[in-house]
Amino acid sequence: MSLLVTNIGELTTQDPERRVLTDAAVVIEDGRFAWIGAAADAPAADEAHDAGSRAALPGWVDSHTHLIFAGDRSAEFEARMAGEAYAAGGISVTMDATRAADDYELTRLLLGRVAEAAAGGTTYLETKTGYGLSVEEERRHARIASSVADQVTYLGAHLVPPGADADEYTELVCTDMLDAVKPYAQFADVFCERGAFNEEQSRRVLSACREAGLGLRVHGNQLGPGPGVRLAVEFAASSVDHVNYLEPADVELLAGTWSGWDAAGATGTAGVVATCLPACDLSTRQPLAPGRELLDAGVEIALASNCNPGTSYTSSMAYCVGTAVLQMGLTVTEAVRAATFGGALALGVQDTVGSVEVGKRADLQLLNAPAAAHLAYRPGMPLTQAVFRAGERVDP
Ligand code: NIG
User: Localized where (predicted)?
Assistant: First the structure.
């Protein structure tokens, strides 16, 4: 079965040449892009979809979310807006609520959140454990997550649960808990921050998870300067996420990991992606991550929603893209790349998703707008018109 999506007013491909085609069309076959070019030259297909001169771009790749949770923390958010500082300890409030939810409820909540993300144009999504914080609960959350999300990250090292000894808990994360979660996860992560895991504990977690064969990422430099970036580089992690408080040496270290990378051709050895989470930065009143500075230094960045009940309760990638353009100094092209190809790089799936290229999974979104620039030009407007994931419509 083949599908022709034609009469695309502006097609942002994010292919290696970063082509933007006008009056374009794509042909999708067996869930993959089979042909891309001028609408006038398009071959025939079994079915056709008229894009009505709208803009099309790759589906969003959301490379950082925490969607396995129950409960509500809006009171904590309100207190923050009244001047309280964000503290990692809030994670235990969600831990209690999530432990109390049965499998049916957690699956129902997760499916609802993934559907919301898809309705906003997200076609590839990572999610983390980290609200279980015991062997059985982390295993349960990872199992449920793996049945719905594209990728699962093991984040047993999210918080030392109240009452536990930090070093003993770290040991558990690196042994029994890791064994329990490993079958369901592709990556592991550690919240390396004051109030969560220190450098030594983080190093222990990263070593054990690497030995277990998981890819690595790090929550780093979110609430203050710290060793997160340094550790991510030392362990050749796929990404370091948050990156709000960077010293010049951190930027230099990250840039060094991209020296074997040809950004223009998107070829070579990928380095450590710096994942910026602007919705979280605004919701926690932290300085926005220095995306402009990182790009100027030659670092590939990703934009992700960080959807979670504590610091960023939105899965809107359009909101993140709009904020990155309006407040972080990125161009529209850079922000769209970071939210598509950049996310794919952070997840190590850049050969499969993140751009409109022949052979890649046919993940495509159409906007109710003639150009991608409208994402920032008309912030907050419901611009998603249609979403195709592997060639199938997934918007409501
Ligand atoms: O990425 N920073 C750590 N983890 C989440 C927040 C989790 C929470 O507060 O519930 C984040 O912001």
Answer: Cytoplasm
